[in-house]
Amino acid sequence: QDNDATVGMDCAFDAEYGLKILRHDGLAWGWPTSRALVEKVKTFPLDASDVMVTAFPKSGTNWVQIMLANLYDDWGTCAITPHRRVPQLEYEAPGMEGYAESLRAKSPRLMKCHLPADRMPSAWQNNRAKVIYMTRNPKDVCVSFRYQLQVPNLEFDDDWDFWVERFTNGKTIYGAWLDHVLGWKRYGEKDGVLHITYEETRKDQIGIMRRVIEFLGRPVDEARFQEVMNKSSFENMKESGYGDQINIGGPESNRSRFLRKGKVADWKNWFTVAQNELFDERITRKLEAAGIHLDYEG
Fold this sequence. Notes:
Blueprint: E1 12-14, E2 19-24, E3 27-30, H1 35-42, E4 51-54, H2 61-71, H3 76-79, E5 92-93, E6 96-97, H4 98-104, E7 110-113, H5 124-127, E8 130-135, H6 138-148, H7 160-168, H8 177-185, E9 193-197, H9 198-203, H10 205-216, H11 222-231, H12 237-240, H13 273-289
Parallel strand pairs: 4-7, 4-8, 8-9
Antiparallel strand pairs: 1-2, 2-3, 5-6
């Protein structure tokens, strides 16, 4: 198991990506990780009763996993982690041993990952454990992701112009945003994958979560449902304590930085006209050509 002295040693600063990464198996993986962990994830014994919340980073996985963790009491992964924190399968660091926690938990397990569809554990191709895939408009993802990467361990070059260029060219961890979304689009509910969007959930949290519950086939007591929806609204999470359930390693004080604004269309405060046109050329038009239309206005 990694310790403070060895964690992330397979990662190194990469000038093309502008941060510390691991290039392995055709993909850029974020610090901290290791080749051994990436390989272990491939053979993780995913069970048909497991539920995975997944998305490209900064697309709303923390929010959805917190709601699900509190709607049900039988998640094995939540039982072995403090504060119902949901482990991230492909993450291992002191204080957050996501892979190990997922491995030793009893089913049913609620887990999180940011894996592209073709990097899911091989067992998923056969048992089709249920996946909730969340898509957020990539312009807001671009802004929010840059904020998250600004921590000393990543050695992140946060120059805004450089970051927009990298993001639109797919020089990001977990691969290009567009590839991630289109890769998952190949799978639908018949494959065990429910697609929701961040923007829809912000507008109609209750309606979207009722869809999720129906998809999982696990009814929830109405009083419990209403209580969790109230405590997990973006405006109430800090006061209710649900924000403490965000699954990050390190000091507890770091958790609040993962909640940020939660707004739709914050990108307008950052993008120049030229950057917006570049984004549309490289990402938005290709996305819409594939039949995916997202809310950029709020």
